Amino acid sequence: MPDQDATSLSFKLVYYGPAQSGKTTNLLRLHDLLSPELKGEVMTMETKDDRTLFFDLLPLGFRAPSGLLIKLRLFTVPGQVAHDGTRKAVLSRADGIVFVADSDSAQETNNGEAFQSMADNCHRVGLDFEHIPLVVQFNKRDLPSAVPEAEVRERWEAAPWPLCFAVALRGEGVASTFEALLRALYRHHAEALGLAREHGISENAFVAGMLGQTGTPA
């Protein structure tokens, strides 16, 4: 469950996937694209070879009609196998996940192993993998070697999670992936947290507030 007190509610969202699939790029493009009421700086810790070692933190937030401050904390995990302990630590207490897959046909095995690692690590840190809000994004759609979209859709058609396609370097599909996760997050937590009943915020208003869209619906 998200962290909550009398004045604020904080959700933790994690971008998970194999090394160099575009997790960090998604967060950097999101920071450029979004304009909620409250948007902090991106913090990055990197190794000497410029791969993400720990996480990127992208705090976002807005106020509900009730005055409740709703915040998001966005993280990425390191994709390298050697950092599995760090991945578990970052994944701990997550409220939602984006799995960023690499569309390159040569990366299919790495994608599968990373997805299984994510499922295993969710269980290890006490997350309910079968019910946690999750979106699957296939990034790098501009690669000549990308698996055709129709083939990806056919493989994932039985999966219960929203499926998105992106070219994160160009910002394509980044916001729509994020929106899909926000909607899944709202639907999963709204009743228990009284988001509509106590705080006057609908699913569309929740999404609009986080995206920084003007004329936020009630």
From TrEMBL:
<dbReference type="InterPro" id="IPR052705">
    <property type="entry name" value="Gliding_Motility_GTPase"/>
</dbReference>
<dbReference type="InterPro" id="IPR027417">
    <property type="entry name" value="P-loop_NTPase"/>
</dbReference>
<protein>
    <submittedName>
        <fullName>GTPase</fullName>
    </submittedName>
</protein>
